[in-house]
Amino acid sequence: MMNQSKKNSFVKQAGILAFAGIIVRMIGILYRRPLTQLIGKEGIGYYSTAYNIYAIILLVSSYSIPAAISKEIAKKLIANEYKNAQRIFYCAIIYVILVGGVASLFTFFGASVLVENNSIIVLRAFAPTVFLSGILGVFRGYFQAHRTMIQTSISQILEQIFNAVVSVAAAYYMMRRLALADATTQRIYGAMGSAIGTGAGVLFALLFMLMIYLLHQGSIQKRMQEDLNSQIQPYPEIFKIIFHMVTPIILSTFIYSLSTSLNQTIYIKILKYVKGLLEKDIIAQYGVFAGEVVIIVNIPIALAAAMSAALLPSISGSFFLGHKKETNHKVDMAIRTTMLIAIPAAVGFAVLARPVVQTLFPQKDTLMQAASLLRCLSITVIFYSLSTITNGVLQGIGKVNIPVVNALISLSIQTVVLVVTLLTTDWNLYALTLVMIVYSFLMCILNGISVYKYLGYRINMKKTFVIPIASSIVMGAVAYFSYRMSYTVCGINSISLLISIVLAASSYFILVIKVGGISENEMKALPQGEKLAFWAKKMRVLS
User: Fold this and answer.
1) CB 346 within 8 Å of CB 376
2) Cα 435 from Cα 449, distance rounded (Å)
3) CB count, 10 Å around CB of 329?
């Protein structure tokens, strides 16, 4: 049995990936400010509409590849079958070239059917990115299988930096070329420029991963030469394994994420064809929801996504070896670590919704609406984080069909709720908020029941929920009053927000430790945990 630090190493790897994910999302928010000022909320609406469809196509064609590939390669590495591991990598490349090529063509030629008129050329601009993303996903999955997230993390940051720079530059260039056109046409082409930026980011990240892979060629070949005991699997058999492994994960991820695009389509269709609103007005309002509020909410969920990515090969390996106790320990660490961050993040968004939106998206005409929506959506940070982790657990232990069933049930219920709410009320964007809460909550419950059924895992309610919630309530009070006092003194929103976040985070950190929410050993398992434990002792918070 491996020692405690090694058992928890996946938490550190997840921390690396989560840190990168948060940086990526912060870069995304920072470049959205000049982009929104450039193409307006109408342009952001066209971009978001096309992006949501692109994301669904990406899910089907390549998004689940890293998870599936990392899981299968991890099994071979544990068994020291290095030649078979490499064969899986080669087959995965061929798979995504074929599937990604078809999906890319479908995106381009099917755009007129998939989105409304003004978003067609924006979606077509995403078509090459669909193809490139699949190949990039295979390289990321390959390195994740080796339980190192550094390459993936760096590539994600580079991808977002190039995305940000090219998106704004291309949008500006497109709009200048159409300076004499009407405002709507300019914004459509500005949104298309932003879509081109997404592809530029993926291309650069792919070139980076390819370079890293080529640098490792020597060690890869040496390891394969030393592998004299493997029974070489035929390529047809590997393709069959990939297909059977990828398909359920694709279905699960597809249905899990379909709610966004389905909700978008239902929302636009009902408001346009039933309630008679203009497309540009609907899209502008939707741009506030998808282009501002959802982006903010997704920042802390980056931790859950990273934890799930790191958990999959790790839990797959321990479960494959029959180490059920170790598997449950990893699940417990992943869930508790995620909740220690997701719960205070949700409370922080609820309490500081207006100053957060004002700092990140200072458009005055949408400030109050975006803040109100963020306040309502804050609870989904907890639900989506938990359901993302449990999705990864179920996939890691081979129960890949269970999340598909759970997502279908949740999707069916939330769709009925959305249609009824839109037809019988004037809630509009708040109807979208309601169904996001319903969907994420149902996924939490159903996935939780499934994890208990197949692993016998019981959540430690006190350490996972009670202590973080109680500490977060106190933290929320500190955040609220410190912001009010700071703003009264200096009158600058961003400075007041920063002061309140520092004070609130410090109070939460102290409270969680003092009431036993995390032990010294558990803290040391976290990224930079040794330093955290050192400072906690120095401050006499940790005895």
Assistant:
1) no
2) 21
3) 16
Q: Is 214 exposed, middle or buried (0-12, 13-18, 19+ CB in 10 A)?
A: exposed
How many CA within 13 A on the CB side of residue 262?
A: 20
Q: Identify the CA nearest to 337 among candidates 373, 296, 300.
A: 300
Q: How many residues does the chain have?
A: 543
Contacts 24+ apart (CB under 8 A), 423-430: 423/270, 423/274, 428/267, 428/271, 428/285, 429/285, 429/286, 429/288, 429/289, 429/369, 429/373, 430/373, 430/376
The model's pLDDT over 407-447, given as tens digits with 9 standing for 90+, comes to 999 999 999 999 999 999 999 999 999 999 999 999 999 99
Q: What is the DSSP letter of 231?
A: -
- What is the reported pLDDT for 396? 82
Calculate the alpha carbon distances from 484 to 6, 349, 357, 368, 474 in Å. Answer: 45, 15, 16, 17, 16
114-147, pLDDT tens digit by residue? 887 888 999 999 999 999 998 998 888 888 777 6
- CB neighbour burial string for 59-98, b if at least 16 within 10 angstroms, e if fewer: bbbbbbbbbbbbbbbbbbbbeebbbbbbbbbebbbebbee
For residue 86, give the nearest of 95, 76, 94 by alpha carbon. Answer: 76
| Rounded-to-integer distance, Cα 468 and Cα 342, Å | 9
Query: With DSSP H G I counted as helix, E B as strand and the rest as coil, what are the percentages for the chain, rounded to 5?
Result: 85, 0, 15
In whole angstroms, what is the distance from residue 126 CA to residue 132 CA? 10
For the chain, give me the number of helices (H) and strands (E)? Answer: 24, 0
Distance set, CA 235 to CA 78, 96, 228, 447 (Å): 20, 15, 18, 34
For residues 224 and 411, give the distance between their C-alpha atoms in angstroms, rounded to a whole number. 45
Residue-wise DSSP of 369-433? HHHHHHHHHTTHHHHHHHHHHHHHHHHHTT-THHHHHHHHHHHHHHHHHHHHHHHH-S-THHHHH
Rg (CA), the chain: 23
Q: What is the pLDDT of residues 344-395, one digit of tens each?
A: 999 999 999 999 999 988 778 889 999 999 999 999 999 999 998 998 899 8
Q: Are 459 and 448 in contact (CB under 8 A)?
A: yes
**347/168 Cα distance (integer angstroms):** 33
CB atoms within 10 A of CB 156: 23
Residue 345: HSE in the Cβ half-sphere, 13 Å Cα cutoff? 23
